Amino acid sequence: MTDKRIDYRSSGVDIQAGEDAVDNIKQMVRETYDRNVLGDLGSFGGLYRFDTSQYQAPVLVSSTDGVGTKLMVAVMAGRYDTVGQDLVNHCVNDILVQGALPLFFLDYIGLGKLDQAMVQEIIAGMVKACRENQCVLIGGEMAEMPGIYREKDFDLAGTIVGVVEQSSLLPAKRIRCGDILVGMPSTGLHTNGYSLARRIVFDHLKLDVNSYVTDLKATVGELLLAVHKSYLQEIKPHLHDRRLHGLAHITGGGIPGNLKRIIPDGLSALVSYNLDEVPPLFRWLRESADLDIEEMRSAFNLGIGMIAVVDPGFVEDFMKNTNYLVLGEIEESRPGFEKVTFIQ
After folding, report:
1. How far apart are alpha carbons 124 and 37 in whole angstroms?
2. For 300-338, how does the pLDDT look when each residue is reduced to its tens digit (9 = 90+)?
3. Around 262, how many Cα atoms within 13 Å sit in the side-chain half-sphere?
4. One domain, residues 203 and 114
5. Is there a domain that residue 8 lies in?
6. Which tens digits make up the pLDDT trace of 46-78?
7. What dihedral do alpha carbons 283, 289, 293, 296 form, nearest 10°?
8. Which of 143, 241, 258, 288 stands 20 to 30 A from 166 (CA)?
9. Same domain, 187 and 161
10. How many CB atoms within 10 Å of residue 250?
11. Which range of residues forms the domain containing residue 22?
């Protein structure tokens, strides 16, 4: 009888491969470092100091999120360069709406089997996004868990920490009647609505990631793996302008589910943005499955990735040289009005 040794590697976890993967990404990650980073990748915790002298009352703002089932499209396409960017940009936007600028970011990658090339591609995307957002990738975790994930499956999550002066926190208490809603275009689905989109595209239409959609002049993979946009560089010049009253990141729940989070009691955001105005990708999804209007509004961002609530006198300056859209305005709530009400 042959004696087959039982060890960690035969159980599906290769410690040496994990150590090699960390070594292979160290130089990439160091490209995001600034003078505030203490220590190096591989420590038990990331160390970061920042200059508090430039703030009177600094407030740390943190957020954690994931990429969701968009990862399944990445696996189908064998393409992992965009999902790392998605994760960082999503988290940057989440703290940006509170007026915060990012300081550092940490990631978590859970895998069925560690594929070093795939990990490097994911981390390269994170590094790219961190550099674009002037954010340090200070640490993370890779966990090989064959009992949880199938061999090609993986999960991706991240945590961001930023800082804002307490007096500059958003949404401001200045949101009032007459304020204008300005929509900032998305680059596609971003990281929400993928369970529905996958069902339409792969189950209902029977397409695959390489299928070419003539009307949209792109493959399914290109359409569904478009990078979730960061709005930091566009909004940063306006963050301290008191005419900017609030920001809403349009993620899961769409415009109604996210805009309502910043609307004060007693007020309603009246949105005039109809389905015939949305980008072609969303019209294609709707027509392909004959989706209900309310379903579209709650599942997808409909081409709007961020909404700014601004003073009427600020609209021209805020929208200057951009492709932003005026979506509506803030009014006093009336019977029958929700916090966010679509008007035809």
Report:
1. 19
2. 999 999 999 999 999 999 999 899 999 999 999 999 899
3. 30
4. no
5. no
6. 999 988 999 999 999 999 999 999 999 999 999
7. -70
8. 258
9. no
10. 25
11. 15-168
